[in-house]
Amino acid sequence: MSDVLLAVEDLRTYFATEEGVVRAVDGVSFTIDRGERRGVVGESGSGKSVTAMSIMGLIEPPAGQIVTGVINFDGLNLLELHEDEMRKVRGGRIAMIFQDPMTSLNPVYTVGQQLVETIVLHQNVSKSDAREIAAQSLADVQIPYPAARLDDFPHQFSGGMRQRVMIAMGLSCNPELLIADEPTTALDVTTQAQILDLMLALADDRGTSVLLITHDLGVVAGFCDTVQVMYAGGIVESGSANDIFYDPKHPYSWGLLGSMTRLDAAQQHRLNSVRGAPPSVINLPQGCRFRPRCDFAVDVCQQRLPLLGPSDVEGHTVACHRAAELDLKLVTPEGAAQ
Amino acid sequence: MTTEEVISYGTETDPEDMPEDVLLRVSHLVKEFPIKRGIFFKSQVGAVHAVSDISFQVRKGETLGLVGESGCGKSTTARCVMRLLEPTEGQVYFRREREVAAPGGGTEIVSDVVDIATADSATMRALRRQIQIVFQDPYASLNPRMTVASIVSEPLIVHRVGTAQERLEKVKELLAVVGLSPEHTNRYPHEFSGGQRQRIGIARALALNPRFIVLDEPVSALDVSIQAQVLNLLQDLQEEYGLTYLFIAHDLSVVRHISDRVAVMYLGKIVEFAERDTLYSEPMHPYTHALLSAVPIPDPELERSRERIILQGEIPSPSDPPPGCRFNTRCPIAVTGKCDVDEPLLSKLGEGHWVACHFPAVRKVF
Amino acid sequence: MSDRSPGADVSLDAAEGISAEPVTQWDLFRTRLARHKQARIAAIFLSLLFAIVFAAPFVTCAERDAYCGKLLEHPATQLRDPQTGLLLVQSPPSTSRPFGTDDIGRDVLSRVIHGGRASLTVGLMTGLIVATVGTVVGALAGYYPGAVDQVLMRIVDVILGLPLLPVAIVFGSLVPQIPVLPAFLKEGAWVIAFLLGILLWGGLARIVRAEFLSLREKEFVEAARAAGSNDRRIIFRHILPNAMSPIIVATTLVVGTAIIIEAALSFLGFGVRPPTPTWGGMSAAGARVATKGFWWEFLASSSALVATVLAVNFMGDGLRDALDPTQTIERK
């Protein structure tokens, strides 16, 4: 019944730096169905953004290289496409919005010029038609006086409005997949609510699949159907939002949830912090990459890297040697410290 | 609610009546940044009203959370309290402790109240031993050209505490207290991760054994798991050393976690002020409602069923704040002719619960 | 007291990931500079040049007519043919005289090496004056906005508005007549260095001011202020060390500029007076005879000039890259 739009298989994206090879994404596999909204959560350096850049074909050799992997988008292997074919996919069938809208908009052109350029590039329309589509897409993202504001420059928009422009630009060609990389991180919380609300409505309306990359588990909870948790270049757990939030099976996801301060926390309790810091992606630890920070690690964790495998719940996969025996729901933060 | 209560908030300008249990009293604080034009003879053409007449008290040993979105004036308030900025108007009373010669020989510690806003530089210098600050950005707040030892011992050197050897010992002790290895004294900041750097910043703030620490968004630049570590550390330190915190943040869930009382700011004004649990369970100001409803909660079922109050429009510019209630341009319940004319005063609407709204009402937001 | 010290749940773990050996800023700087190939070659060239130029007086004869037969001749010595006793005028490069002789029989190699002293003195002294004055003025203007800034920056505007060559020519002839100046300052190279120093510090002052304006708003400066540091400590301990990269780079470029301007002045006949050799003066003399086929004096002196200025600029480039904080190897 599922209708797979994007299938990523064993993606490995490495970067050569002065200090050594950074294995930013190291063996990542997942799929996104049509209309699915998938969240990618992880801390800085977990490889979530590089995964998105790899899909978009924005990894720049020679520094960055996709070493192995297949990115199958609706029957096309994106990694084998020619650059000019890829250019048609990028911005047309797959759109991306970034954290900082100011750097993704060119300050010397009006918003209208930039929108029209994108539309003309991907759709077979005249300039004047493109301008109408552009005005309509600004109206879709609820920018007041859309036709007049086409002639404004990016700096004349506020931060929230600029992110709306980016969404308008992303959605102007009716993409099948929208990749949003921390789209609301730079915004205030009330503006974030506006933007998420808008993205949710637009994606729902058009049946667009969304890959939402964020460090904020709260944003994921409200926005996504499915979630994958990334750590040090790999996916450690993947499943429906309810599975991940109510029944985390990987000690990292569990720790991450426990370390969050919650608005609805009834009483003050000591946070269950994950000890230590994420490993350097150059010198990854032997075996399970989370082992040095894990409260449940045993000998086998040091010897073998656990692979993402099925759990007792359908569609919920986890990469932990002890997933089957641990019942993290029953472990209190205090109990874990032993 | 009596008229007396309405006008009494923050009008106590006599330092003598500051209660013993109050460490800091900010009274009618105003900070405006002039906007100047011209090349040779600059003339003032306007002002950014960053903080407009706010008052609050911080009790000994408590954590007061000051929360609001960017541009609300919370960081400016922090800097005025620290006298890193000169307040335009108002007082910042601090109950300092001083060692004085006792009548029968030896020394004793006496406490008196001093106005930070007008203190002379010698008084201010001495006060800086008791008031410290931790900054938001662990990358910008440590001098990249200095070693960890010189960064952490900076306050000790400036206040001529101990010998070089004693200072080094103190640095090592401080590093251990904040969970860093004492061997790292001769390292440079660029060798540390964000969380580690923030610990160095905390060690520096602790160096002079302060009584009061301003925490200006201390965890907002950190990853979630690191945030939790630093929050736990801050709470442990507070318990251990009896510290009083003024915690500035934009993240309402972090503020709920760490604060005893919370003040919500919007466009240079405090709009609501209450005990922590009162504010989160019975918020009365429409801005607080919107703010709380906008914060995502990591609970999918709850999130899907929550009603979100989506504010319309943008925050007005602080150089041209709207007349009347500053929130009236975006308020879902604003009444034309009232809210855009009369400025609501902060009024007491419950035990320790103050709200600046003409039409306050409790609303559950989650 | 609680049973654990604050931070105990994370102690040592929080210290993970720190390498065994401290990496200082200086280490990073050296590594990056060593990686910059042009700068490395330039550095070697400049060190050799300095050694030769400033050692030259010690290996030549003090007397101009002694014709000592040492490695280098006195720059004013006129060479004669040992057999005929005639002046060796305009003799082309040979194995014994690799750069040939000039129109009155002086050894061009010796003169190029001795002439370098004027160029390098002007370059270094100007750089020193510019670095000092520009840094002090820029620091004051950047740290004390308002009246101090206004007054200093208007002075900078005036200085930068002066036409360089005419002013240098006019004042170059006036300076030696100032009675109170010590004698050495009235020598050609020192006069020019002094003048150029005064004329060229404006650009650096602007750069330093901009650095100070941005650095004084940094949180680490606020932190120092919150700790109780006074202005002097903040300026010298916190801001200046962080502004060193642009100061060093801009000063290097000023050194190159000063060498060229000195050469231009000498070429026009307003710089260091003959018979003291300078690259500019030799280029002028060489250019007059080059059209008649006696090309070697011009080629030797102008090549020395070009090579030195290029090397100085490459050094500047290398320093800029090595000091660029965005190239800092950082773990984030």
Give a verbal description of the structure.
The complex is a heterotrimer of chains A (338), B (366) and C (332). Chain A is built from 13 helices and twelve strands. Chain A has helices spanning 48-56, 83-89, 101-104, 111-122, 127-140, 146-149, 159-171, 189-206, 217-223, 241-246, 251-258, 299-303, 333-336, and strands at residues 4-17, 20-33, 37-41, 64-73, 76-77, 94-97, 177-181, 209-214, 226-231, 234-240, 309-310, 317-318. In chain A, the strands form two sheets. An eight-stranded mixed β-sheet of chain A has the order 6-7-8-3-9-10-12-11, sandwiched between helices. The model of chain A is unreliable at 333-338 (pLDDT under 50). With 366 residues, chain B is of the alpha/beta class. Chain B has helices at residues 3-8, 74-81, 121-127, 148-158, 164-177, 194-206, 224-241, 252-258, 276-281, 286-294, 300-305; strands at 22-37, 43-59, 63-67, 89-101, 107-115, 131-134, 212-216, 244-249, 261-266, 269-275, 347-350, 353-355. Chain B has an eight-stranded mixed β-sheet with strand order 6-7-8-3-9-10-12-11, with helices on both faces. In chain B, strand 4 and strand 5 (107-115) form a beta hairpin. Chain B starts with a helix and ends in an 11-residue tail after the last strand. The model of chain B is unreliable at 1-8 (pLDDT under 50). With 332 residues, chain C is mainly alpha-helical. Helix content of chain C is 63%, strand content 0%. Chain C contains ten helices and no strands. Chain C has helices spanning 25-35, 37-59, 108-143, 147-161, 164-174, 188-215, 219-226, 231-268, 279-290, 296-323. In chain C, 43% of the residues are buried. The model of chain C is unreliable at 1-15 and 328-332 (pLDDT under 50). Classes of the chains: A alpha/beta (338), B alpha/beta (366), C mainly alpha (332). At the B-C interface, strand 6, helix 4, helix 6 and helix 7 of B face helix 7 and helix 8 of C.
